[in-house]
């Protein structure tokens, strides 16, 4: 495998967790640990994006966000923090997933996201193509669970939704397939942390 690309064994179940991580926080950690358990994943790869295509303002430098994300994870061996999108030269999730399924044809990938992202999902470029490529695991986030449930993407994919009790089968499903699971809620958010840092005059944010 090319340098900087994580190793993966054939048949491994890997969650792809894309985000700005500007900065990473307890919510990302909780989502990751819950996904590992509920979807019976072997690994989760944090795809630290060079920049969310829907966000107008660029985030902090990529190296800074990668280093901080690794600190938050405190060496959990099941989680890999990667700059794969920068290496692949992709920004759009459809392109990133397309490249990864070609590079790792025998890995069982699932896409992970918080419920606030499911609300917006129908605005992502070629979102239905994403849903055709990999199953999707959605984790409830305070304030967006109901909106996510009635979102455009959820409505269009309603007949492909797994009951929460069957979340452990998500990686075996032929996409499109998705499930929304509850997790211990935390209202941690990167924007709240950035706002707090700005208020306290900490230049990092
Ligand atoms: N507290 C949380 N609970 C559940 N999911 C979360 C939580 N915080 C972030 N996520 C999810 O993590 C992914 C990456 O989010 P991101 O890095 O943008 O963090 P954020 O806190 O949402 O940032 P911002 O506040 O700047 O929008 C998204 O899928 C988002 O839904
Ligand atoms: O591909 C798109 O059109 C698209 C639009 C919005 C967000 N995304 C991805 O969604 C993930 C979460 O983004 P964010 O900024 O909410 O952490 C991250 O991997 C982004 O690249 C992707």
UniProtKB/TrEMBL annotation:
Reactions catalysed: nicotinate beta-D-ribonucleotide + ATP + H(+) = deamido-NAD(+) + diphosphate
Span of domain Cytidyltransferase-like: 16-195
Pathway the protein acts in: Cofactor biosynthesis; NAD(+) biosynthesis; deamido-NAD(+) from nicotinate D-ribonucleotide: step 1/1
EC number: 2.7.7.18
GO molecular function: ATP binding; nicotinate-nucleotide adenylyltransferase activity
Protein's GO biological process: NAD+ biosynthetic process
Coiled coil feature spans: none
CDD domains per the UniProt record, alphabetical: NMNAT
Superkingdom of origin organism: Bacteria
Keywords: ATP-binding, NAD, Nucleotide-binding, Nucleotidyltransferase, Pyridine nucleotide biosynthesis, Transferase
Family: Belongs to the NadD family.
Role, per record: Catalyzes the reversible adenylation of nicotinate mononucleotide (NaMN) to nicotinic acid adenine dinucleotide (NaAD).
The protein's name: Probable nicotinate-nucleotide adenylyltransferase
Species of origin: Paracoccus jeotgali
